[in-house]
Specification:
The chain is an alpha/beta fold. The mean pLDDT is 95. An eight-stranded mixed sheet has the order 3-2-1-4-7-6-10-5, with helices on both faces. A two-stranded antiparallel sheet has the order 8-9. α13 packs antiparallel against α14. The chain contains 14 helices and ten strands.
Length: 363
């Protein structure tokens, strides 16, 4: 018997996304949405489309509770549960890819997730996400940045489906003001959770609360469970960013170097250090760091991978470093590589300048 798929979600005031989202997921056997208090017609439109839905409001909202409540809407005969927010869109054929990959012992599925897009429409942050799971085997935990946790600690078999693509088109007008207090609650509930400690430190950084961020991120680094090198490197980069915000360039440099030493096969800390040296007019150091960064050819799909590090900007900085160092041949080479990734007119103008200086130097 073919396994049935249920897409489920939580939603509040998502009327502008409802029809586009439903078109993407309606190939599922069931579609369920828990509305958490919409006042813009979202709930009514979902019912019109035939979505299994109910409305529930919360005095003290937390994402894990709402998602667990949304799971109660999933019919018993649906084996595969797919958690998708209304600002996320599957590319065509996703359901067939999922059913073909799902085996009798499969409990979770990972798929390719584009979290955001650059202004030119190209992909921004991309990573493998995993919000597809077997029914009645998992619950959601953590008040925000919630995760699936096995019920009764059952062993779980994953399947990777890299051709299954989900795209996130975020509503940037929505406030994320609830995230900080929910993250503080997460850490209060589980102070040894390295993931939540990392996220809380990052959130303090976003708010410009640099001292709190530094303290919290150092707590993350001190936890015995904080063993993922890439995430540790990210915490070190965020600490460096906070010191930069405080005007402490010495500590900023130190923590960026530590981030490189922590995980030297990802580009982000190299990029930040190269920019720091460039801004300090240490062009030889900057060029060296960017050249080292560009030796890294493989981009790992995780949420910390910055698209800036894989676009035209590293070559742009390198071209300007070589210009300042009067190595015009290398400046032309680097700006040509930048132009191959961007049609920005400024780069083309720089090329004309570098080329003219190169010809003058050769004569």
């Amino acid at each position: 018997m073919e396994k049935k798929i249920c897409v489920y979600a939580i939603a509040k005031n998502e009327i502008k996304f409802v029809d586009r989202w439903f078109k993407s997921v309606k190939v599922a056997d069931y579609v369920c949405v828990l509305d958490t208090g919409s006042t813009d017609g979202t709930f009514e439109r979902l019912k019109e489309l035939g979505v299994i839905t109910k409305q529930k409001t919360y005095e003290n909202f937390r994402f894990d509770v709402a998602r667990n409540d949304s799971l109660t809407l999933v019919p018993d005969d649906a084996e595969i549960c797919v958690c998708v927010d209304l600002d996320e869109i599957f590319e065509k054929g996703w359901n067939k890819l999922l059913k073909n990959a799902w085996k009798d012992d499969t409990c979770r599925a990972r798929y390719r997730y584009t979290w955001n897009f650059n202004p030119d429409g190209s992909e921004g942050i991309v990573f493998m996400s995993d919000k597809i799971h077997k029914n009645k085997m998992f619950k959601w935990t953590c008040p925000v940045h919630e995760i699936l946790t096995p019920i009764n600690n059952q062993l779980c078999s994953f399947v990777d489906i890299p051709k299954l693509q989900l795209n996130h088109h975020a509503d940037n007008t929505k406030s994320r003001s609830s995230y900080l207090p929910l993250l503080e609650l997460s850490v209060k509930e589980d102070p040894l959770n390295d993931r939540n400690m990392h996220y809380l430190g990052r959130e303090y950084m976003y708010y410009g609360e640099y001292d709190k961020a530094i303290e919290t991120l150092n707590k993350h680094l001190a936890l015995k469970s904080a063993t993922w090198a890439d995430e540790r490197a990210a915490s070190l980069r965020y600490i460096a960013s906070c010191y930069g915000g405080k005007g402490d360039k010495e500590n900023q440099e130190e923590y960026l170097i530590r981030a490189i030493l922590e995980s030297n096969l990802i580009r982000e800390a190299y990029f930040d250090l190269g920019v720091l040296y460039f801004e300090e007019k240490k062009y030889l150091k900057s060029a060296f760091i960017f050249e080292e960064m560009l030796k890294i050819k493989e981009r790992y799909l995780n949420y910390m991978s910055s698209p800036i590090c894989w676009g035209s900007l590293p070559y742009d900085y390198l071209s300007m470093c070589y210009y300042e160092l009067k190595n015009y041949k290398k400046a032309v080479q680097m700006v040509d590589l930048a132009i191959s990734l961007s049609d920005e007119q400024r780069l083309k103008n720089n090329r004309e300048i570098f080329l003219k200086l190169k010809k003058e130097a050769e004569n």
